[in-house]
Amino acid sequence: MADAENLVADIEALERKLAEAKQAITKRFIGQERVVDLTLSALLCGGHAILIGLPGLGKTRLVETLSTVMGLNGNRVQFTPDLMPADILGSEVLETGADGSRGFKFIPGPIFCQLLMADEINRASPRTQSALLQAMQEKVVTVAGMDRKLDAPFHVLATQNPIEQEGTYPLPEAQLDRFLVQIDVAYPDRATERDILLATTGTEDAQSHQVFDTESLLAAQTLLRRMPVGDAVVEMILDLVRAFRPSDPSAGERVRETVAWGPGPRAAQALMLTVRARALLQGRLAPSPEDVLDMARPVLTHRMALSFSAKARGEDLGALIDHVAQGMMRTEAAA
């Protein structure tokens, strides 16, 4: 009983701290609460996020603000077509000592930080993109045959321009699956854009302040995994993920006609974590089926692919995910 009471008290304290962090972020990143919530969810879950949107929508500003508010040591890498893996991971250089002795010294790259901003990640070649793969999954990089551990926590927040733009390379499926969530950054509405104009074109720019530090963020990530999840939510997560696998008996006809390949077990793990994060950000002690519905699109979209015929018909994965998830909610409500 005491353990349960302590857990409730810890969750409530974290909820208050998250509310303060969100308020500090939205001082500089105005009006995009959905984007802020999803990005904070990725950090709370210990995962990575990919932000997709056209240039000039504030993606870089958001990541810089997060670095300050969450108390993380951050680095930024501008991805370009000529960027090489060593430019990210680091390399060994031959060094001559004062006594004339010579030896190799490792010069760490920008990946040795706690929050790496991979700006316009799809501008770089697939070879350079894949340099992040081991780091994102294992929190280790191998250079010159030696494994080097990254700092904890380690998060990658990548920004990406839409694939339709010239000079971009699609990310490999294996790397996309390493991103916990895909965050679509849309144009602001008129009122929000007016607020942005007034806040950013004067003589002073709003400043954010630090709310978390390394220890408190790691503690929050541990606490999130202790949050209880009801059986109904667990079953809904399993049903939803399996419903998008064309070979699964539970997949509907529309899915079998539209989806080339569906999400794997990592998608279910991501949903299990992100529904807890959403509950925390909304001040609740446990996730609900509505959290599963809300997180389905950002967790599943980048883990699925349309078939060739579905692309030709102009099908949209996001609309399909919403259709199937809402159908499950209606079925559960009727039951």
From TrEMBL:
* Keyword ATP-binding in record: yes
Question: Which InterPro entries has this protein been placed in?
Answer: ATPase_AAA-3 (IPR011703), CbbQ/NirQ/NorQ/GpvN (IPR050764), ChlI/MoxR_AAA_lid (IPR041628), P-loop_NTPase (IPR027417)
Domain of life of the source: Bacteria
Tell me if ATP-binding is a UniProt keyword of this record. Answer: yes
Which parts of the sequence belong to the ATPase AAA-3 domain? 48-181
Q: What is this protein called?
A: MoxR family ATPase
> Which family, according to the similarity comment?
Belongs to the MoxR family.
Q: Any idea which UniProt keywords this protein has?
A: ATP-binding, Nucleotide-binding
Q: Write out the GO MF terms.
A: ATP binding; ATP hydrolysis activity
Q: Which Gene3D superfamilies match?
A: Magnesium chelatase subunit I, C-Terminal domain, P-loop containing nucleotide triphosphate hydrolases
Q: Which Pfam families match?
A: AAA_3 (PF07726), AAA_lid_2 (PF17863)
Residues of the ChlI/MoxR AAA lid domain: 253-316
